[in-house]
């Protein structure tokens, strides 16, 4: 039998809340939602997706194998960045099977730099480098000589000994990985130096040439574009236009014998609100209605499930043991940002604790 506390070292609402969290085994930052790392996005991690949310993500991930643009549309503040990373990881894991090299693009981040169009090209170039360094493309590419050139190996030196060829490709992968990691660490100059010493094509060729060369080796590019941003200024639109221009630049020309437009080896998947998707369309990208997939809004039950994924009390089997879901019901509202919902939840709890002491299972008192 639990004995409810009636005395606290700090009788302020914040003090009571802090002591309650310590008692039930919840961390100090509860109920704030933390940024999820890649391990959290795995099947047994902290990412919560209800059945309708999983279906929407599965449609996007499956459709991403096609050479066309897709979009996942959601309410503002509902996790576009997290979902874009989740889908990126799915495609990255299946790169060889899909013959796709995914590249993550954060439009808001690019819009904040001095030369967004140039930075976008660098992001795509080193995203390609990272993928080439991480997967055994030599085992699936039908154009090993093209691949060898991308890896900085003179194709005339490729012999009939496949084991030696694979060893040569593997040694180049280590160098490409070093270039990609240096780029991620923020040292562009050093990264470009390593890349120039490894592959003339990847380092010095125009990006459209690199993408077309990859295409001849049987590898297409899929941009995973996170549109979430608090503002959509001219720089933001510049990035969107550059994405469209790059895709069209690498599209093969239509021949007189063809009645259809050839697909581009560079396509994209967008994650954002309806308004942001409309900006994509204005920038020139053709998004057919059937390829715009709606991500369902989170219900109050979903919000509690999200919190339960993030937080498990150290002293109890589940969050529901120590927190009444009705508290989330009051904070939830359709269209409200996730961050705002958990902020309002915390404020409601603190307001309640200003006149009451917390029970072991925190619940509404009004």
Q: Let me know the largest β-sheet.
A: 5 strands, parallel
Which percent bin holds the helix content? 40-55%
Q: Radius of gyration, Cα only, in angstroms?
A: 25 Å
H/E order of the elements? HHEHHEHHHHHHHEHEHEHHH
- Indicate the proportion of strand residues: 5-15%
How many beta strands in the DSSP annotation?
A: 5
Judging from the principal axes of the Cα atoms, what is the shape?
elongated
Low-confidence stretches: none
**How far is the N terminus from the C terminus?**
25 Å
What is the SS-derived class?
alpha/beta
Q: Please state the average pLDDT score.
A: 88
Q: Please state how the strands of the largest beta sheet are arranged side by side.
A: 2-3-4-1-5
Task: Please tell me about this protein's structure.
The structure is a single chain. The protein has 366 residues and is an alpha/beta fold. 49% of the residues lie in helices and 8% in strands. The chain has helices at 13-24, 51-63, 80-93, 95-98, 107-111, 116-134, 144-150, 162-184, 188-198, 200-204, 207-216, 234-249, 274-282, 300-310, 326-331, 338-353; strands spanning 70-73, 100-106, 220-226, 266-272, 292-294. The protein has a five-stranded parallel sheet with strand order 2-3-4-1-5, sandwiched between helices. α1 (13-24) packs across α16 (338-353), α6 runs antiparallel to α8 and α8 (162-184) runs antiparallel to α9. The mean pLDDT is 88.
Keyword list:
366 residues; alpha/beta; 5-stranded parallel beta sheet; 49% helix; 8% strand; elongated
């Amino acid at each position: 039998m639990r004995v409810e506390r009636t005395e606290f070292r700090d009788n302020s609402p914040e003090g009571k809340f802090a002591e309650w969290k310590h008692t039930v085994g919840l961390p100090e930052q509860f109920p704030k939602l933390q940024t999820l790392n890649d391990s959290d996005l795995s099947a047994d991690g902290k990412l919560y997706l209800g059945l309708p949310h999983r279906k929407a993500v599965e449609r996007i991930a499956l459709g991403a194998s096609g050479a066309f643009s897709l979009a996942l549309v959601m309410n503002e503040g509902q996790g576009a960045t997290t979902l874009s990373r989740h889908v990126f990881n799915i495609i990255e894991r299946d790169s060889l099977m899909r013959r796709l090299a995914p590249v993550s693009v954060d439009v808001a981040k690019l819009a904040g730099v001095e030369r967004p169009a140039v930075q976008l090209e660098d992001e795509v170039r080193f995203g390609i480098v990272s993928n080439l360094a991480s997967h055994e493309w030599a085992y699936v590419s039908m154009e090993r000589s093209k691949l060898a050139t991308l890896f900085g190996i003179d194709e005339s030196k490729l012999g009939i000994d496949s084991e030696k060829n694979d060893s040569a490709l593997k040694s180049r992968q280590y160098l490409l990985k070093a270039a990609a990691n240096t780029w991620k660490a923020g040292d562009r100059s050093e990264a470009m130096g390593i890349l120039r010493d490894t592959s003339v094509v990847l380092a010095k060729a125009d990006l459209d040439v690199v993408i077309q060369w990859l295409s001849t080796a049987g590898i297409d590019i899929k941009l995973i574009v996170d549109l979430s941003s608090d503002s959509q200024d001219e720089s933001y639109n510049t990035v969107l236009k550059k994405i469209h221009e790059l895709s069209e630049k690498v599209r093969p020309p239509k021949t007189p014998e063809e009645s259809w437009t050839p697909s581009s080896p560079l396509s994209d998947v967008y994650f954002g609100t309806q308004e942001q998707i409309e900006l994509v369309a204005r920038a020139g990208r053709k998004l057919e209605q059937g390829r715009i997939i709606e991500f369902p809004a989170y219900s109050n039950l979903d919000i509690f499930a999200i919190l339960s994924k993030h937080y498990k009390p150290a002293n109890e089997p589940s969050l529901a043991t120590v927190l009444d879901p009705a508290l989330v019901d009051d904070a939830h509202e359709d269209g409200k940002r996730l961050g705002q919902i958990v902020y309002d939840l915390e404020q409601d709890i603190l307001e309640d604790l200003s006149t009451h002491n917390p029970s072991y299972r925190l619940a509404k008192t009004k």
